[in-house]
Design goal:
alpha/beta; Rossmann fold; five-stranded parallel beta sheet; 7 helices; 5 strands
């Protein structure tokens, strides 16, 4: 079981690196060489957590648009988003919808997304959804998507956005300095 978790963490790290996220950097490291670019609005300060301009209300589509800028790493709590907003679809349909949505967001805003879903698909791997720019991770048995997201946030010092309405997950990642978007403001910015 321990070996399976180590192997899975390595797979998650590789998937998130492919989606544009680097490994954790040492405290005090100069982030000037980071691949994450800053948004065009100079009132917005990217960080852990980021600082929105005083006139921008957190939890709004405007705030989401600032947070979802080119190069920004985004972790999406897959089924938390799909079951709330596309719950009438099959699980396969929900996953395909979310991957298409994120592929469009990549094209429009240049973010680096990773979707984390609970459990393995029947083939044991990534579903054939045709969006290479969107990393998709399925957790192994006994590991939740929430835990996987927390591990990914904890594994880097880079600014990161987590998309979820799960209160417990939101509290855990905020404690690690992640920016959080609720699913409604995320979908508003993505469309």
């Amino acid at each position: 079981m321990v070996e399976e978790r180590r192997e899975h963490r390595g797979a998650v790290a590789r998937a998130t690196e492919r989606a544009g996220a680097g490994p954790r950097t040492a405290p005090g490291t100069d982030h000037a060489t980071s691949t994450v670019s800053t948004p065009t609005d100079d009132r917005f300060v990217v960080g852990r957590p980021s600082r929105l301009p005083a006139e921008v209300v957190a939890g709004t589509t405007e705030a989401a648009r600032l947070l979802l800028h080119r190069g920004r790493r985004v972790l999406v709590d897959g089924y938390n988003v799909t079951k709330q907003h596309q719950g009438s679809l099959t699980l396969e349909g929900q996953r395909a919808w979310l991957v298409r949505l994120l592929a469009t967001l990549v094209a429009r805003r240049g973010v680096a997304p990773t979707i984390v879903f609970d459990g393995q698909v029947s083939s044991g791997g990534r579903p054939p959804m045709g969006a290479r720019e969107v990393a998709v991770v399925f957790t192994p048995a006994g590991i939740t998507a929430d835990d996987e997201i927390v591990l990914a946030v904890d594994a880097t010092d880079e600014p990161i956005v987590v998309v979820s309405d799960d209160r417990e997950l939101v509290a855990r990642v905020r404690a690690l300095g992640a920016d959080v978007l609720d699913t409604r403001s995320f979908l508003g910015a993505a469309s």
